[in-house]
Design brief:
- Helices cover 28% and strands 11% of the residues.
- The longest helix has 17 residues.
- Among the domains are: 208 residues, Response regulator (Rossmann fold, 3-Layer(aba) Sandwich), CATH 3.40.50; 142 residues, no CATH class.
- The protein is built from 26 helices and 23 strands.
- It has a ten-stranded mixed β-sheet, with helices on both faces.
- The chain is α/β, with parallel strands linked by helices.
């Protein structure tokens, strides 16, 4: 047997050490071209790589297409962008001509289904990643549609699929919008290879290999890649040892072991025999022609018989348990770099929720690059192969990626059209990647990994200065120094060997791991240096804060509260009750209370009036109606009134989504008889859980009254301070019905466009003022007395 084609080692080639492609002789483009005219100005006759994206093209490191495009440009490749093409034909995919090496396809920074639909499966009326906030600029399941159009445009050009939509759909996955399990996205998109995660390493290696003449079928050894096993790829993977994990335990009745030396019919009481009706007729005495031999003084349970009363010729045999606990025989597993885990087939998981939960558990256990194995899952007559996760980028590589020559603004083709997603981040700086929190409703770990990848202080401060000097409209305020989480910068396991072998899904649940370095001094120092930059008036922190980590560092909390809170700080306890929190893998509400004490104390010391705004989730798996009732009581007791409610959204690949679909808990070993999770399904129950969060809204009171009565808690209905909702419904003076105030810019149809309205005519006898129809005075001065 030949040596197996193993996954690339743990010390991959740095991104900046590749030999540059010949096109590096061109200067970096002001913007990556979106038209033939721009290509002509750059002197290009063709693009080596063309990126198709569901987002508008913003040349900023917060947008995936810009990072991948600029990274490949730095490697010496000519990269073009086709952003939000019309997908109804293949012609818009030919606008830049035929790419020399490949198409790169992504749905954009968001999953296209989450981008278009709300948690209640209603179509959104806007798209923050489109110019003018316009909806309908991308199709549903954009990765699939774009890939098929690329294949139609140029059938012989390899298609590389990437982005978060592809990353989170790399195996068979539950699709909330169709309420069924769909196949791996690579089988529907018919792409040649899928890159999951941020994928800088993989995309650089793939394109360089294609440029050197390799075919895409020969690229089978890269971490962070997935592909369909064709005949050529089967040869490359033939030497792998397969570890079957495509079934779960089926618990059944376990009978007590019977002493084989005991005639059970002689026992005065035999529960094992009597409990089985079949054995009642199976007594040897009932057999035809059977004559029972009479045994004088039968010895039963010889181990408790006084040996002095037994004849010397009688040999006593005793069955005793071993005095030492025997160790279970462990099968030696093959080395991780030459073994592959066989997941349950697509045809199994689509019909069996328990096997789906099991497959999800295995996937999440194989996310640590230090010990993860490859996985394979059969789809019909084909296998989808997933190589182990990519090795995280080093600090030097992170600096290399973020220091590329981004224009930091949208492409000029959009003119003055606003792109809301860009407006949100144009004055922010991403300082790190990854998250080791492991929240089950979030998919950051499955996409970016749980090992934190940090930029250097120097690189971060250079970007702050670049924003100050080049970004239009900068007023001196940096809106964020953060990432997926605000305060995980430079936090890691104390021992690299422990980190390499760890299989825990979270470093902070159920408590902060003793092996985790939680020192926030690097982050505190970074804040101080950024504040000292000339021209920077204030730096805000708007990324999500892990307050369970922050309370371990009071100095950091003081720095944050004193200098980096703009009046309000949003944090996410998500719930107050242990049941749902255990399914979310979030800390108890006590951690929030400890953080609030520090927040209030340091705000008072700084002489500032500042507030915490907690976020909560309704209808999360594992949440009962009683849990939501207790949360509502906590909100009222603490004086919180939620204007917007976050309802659980089952996104692809999240652990909580597996709970939602299977009603099993993948955080523990899954079997037919394992823990069942309470799932909130159905419109009425989801509405009820949202209503508990908005207990103060009179529109919700009828539903809450009915629910509280059915729960036996009618004592919470009344006008006393300790009660949740009042007894009676308020009436509108005109219609006799209650109606909530509409948002300022909302419309009757529920979209986000401002309604046009004509002022009503004054009634007869009405005195006109500036508030009831009289136009304001031109000068604003007081009226002169006559």
């Amino acid at each position: 047997m030949s040596a197996p084609n193993t996954i690339s080692g743990a010390t991959p080639k740095p991104l900046f050490d590749y030999d540059k492609h010949w096109a590096s002789c061109f200067e970096p483009a002001p913007f990556l071209p979106m038209s033939r005219a721009e290509m002509d100005l750059l002197g290009w006759d063709a693009c080596d790589v063309i990126i198709i994206s569901g987002d508008a093209y913003v040349d900023h490191p917060s947008f995936g297409m810009a990072i991948i495009g600029r990274l490949l440009e730095a490697q010496g490749f000519r990269v073009g962008i086709i952003a939000q093409p019309d997908w109804h034909s293949a012609e818009p995919f030919k606008v830049l001509g035929k790419p020399v090496y490949c198409f790169g396809v992504t749905a954009g920074n968001m999953d296209s289904m989450i981008n278009r639909y709300t948690a209640d499966r209603k179509i959104r009326s806007d798209d923050a990643y489109s110019p003018g906030n316009a909806p309908d600029k991308r199709p549903d399941r954009a990765s699939v549609v774009y890939s098929q159009r690329c294949r139609e445009a140029y059938p012989d050009v390899p298609i590389i699929l990437g982005g978060i939509e592809a990353s989170l759909r790399r195996i068979a996955h539950y699709d909330y919008w169709q309420d069924k399990v769909r196949r791996s996205i690579i089988t529907d998109a018919k792409a040649d290879i899928l890159l999951y995660g941020n994928a800088e390493r993989a995309i650089v290696d793939v394109v360089h290999r294609l440029a050197k003449g390799d075919t895409v079928d020969q690229i089978t050894d890269l971490r962070g890649t997935s592909f369909i096993l064709n005949e050529a790829r089967k040869v490359a993977k033939a030497a792998y040892f397969e570890v079957a994990s495509n079934d779960v335990d089926n618990p059944g009745r376990v009978d007590a072991i019977i002493n084989p030396y005991v005639m059970t019919e002689d026992l005065p009481s035999c529960d094992v025999e009597k409990s089985n009706p079949k054995n009642q007729a199976a007594n040897p005495a009932s057999y035809a022609g059977f004559t029972k031999e009479v045994v004088a003084n039968p010895i039963v349970n010889a181990e408790i018989v006084n040996t002095r009363t037994v004849d010397e010729d009688t040999q006593i045999v005793s069955l005793r348990p071993s005095s030492t606990i025997s160790k279970a025989i462990k099968h030696r597993m093959p080395a991780r770099d030459v073994s592959v885990i066989r997941l349950p087939d697509y045809d199994q998981v689509k019909d069996d929720p328990v096997l789906y939960a099991h497959a999800n558990r295995i996937l999440h256990l194989e996310t640590n690059p230090g010990n993860a194995r490859a996985m394979v899952q059969r789809h019909g007559d084909r296998d989808v192969w997933l190589n182990a996760p990519p090795i995280p980028l080093s600090t030097e590589e992170m600096d290399y990626v973020f220091d590329l020559p981004y224009a930091r603004i949208p492409h000029p083709a959009y003119g003055d059209a606003r792109i809301p997603a860009y407006d949100m981040i144009k004055f922010s700086v991403n300082i790190m990647r990854g998250c080791f929190g492991g929240c089950t409703f979030c998919s950051i770990t499955e996409h970016e990994g749980r090992i934190i990848q940090n930029r250097s202080e120097e690189s971060i401060l250079r970007e702050v200065e670049s924003i100050r000097d080049t970004t239009p409209g900068f007023t001196g305020v940096i809106s964020d120094l953060g990432g997926p989480t605000a305060n995980m910068y430079r936090l890691a396991c104390k021992d690299p060997e422990i980190e390499k072998n760890c299989r825990k899904p979270s470093c902070v649940y159920p408590g902060v791991c003793d092996n985790l370095n939680t020192d926030h001094s690097h982050l505190t120092q970074l804040y101080r240096k950024a504040r000292d930059i000339k021209g920077v008036k204030k730096i805000l922190i708007s990324s999500g804060l892990r307050y369970d980590l922050a309370v371990l560092n009071p100095e950091y909390v003081k720095e944050l509260v004193t200098h980096h809170v703009g009046g309000y700080l949003k944090i996410a306890p998500e719930h107050t009750e242990g049941g749902p929190l255990s399914k979310m893998m979030k800390p108890g509400i006590g951690a929030y209370d400890r953080f609030k004490q520090l927040f209030d104390r340091f705000s008072k010391e700084a002489g500032k009036e500042q507030y915490l705004i907690p976020y909560f989730i309704a209808a999360h798996p594992g949440t009962t109606d009683q849990d939501m009732m207790h949360l509502a009581l906590w909100l009222k007791k603490n004086g919180f009134r939620a204007d917007q409610v976050q309802t659980f959204y089952p996104s692809p690949m999240a652990t909580a989504t597996a709970m939602y679909h299977s009603a099993k808990n993948p955080l523990r070993k899954v079997s037919r008889g394992s823990e069942t999770v309470d799932i909130v399904k159905g419109e009425r129950r989801r509405r009820l859980h949202k209503a508990f969060l908005r207990y103060h809204d009179p529109n919700n009171w009828p539903l809450l009254r009915e629910a509280l009565k059915s729960m036996g808690r009618a004592d919470l209905i009344g006008n006393a301070k300790h009660q949740l909702i009042p007894t009676n419904q308020p009436l509108n003076k005109d219609s006799g019905e209650y109606s909530t105030a509409r948002k300022k810019n909302s419309s009757v149809a529920g979209d986000s466009r401002k309604r046009s309205s004509t002022p009503s005519q004054p009634k007869k006898g009405q005195i006109l003022t500036q508030h009831t129809g009289l136009p304001p005075r031109v000068t604003g001065a007081k009226k002169q007395s006559s």
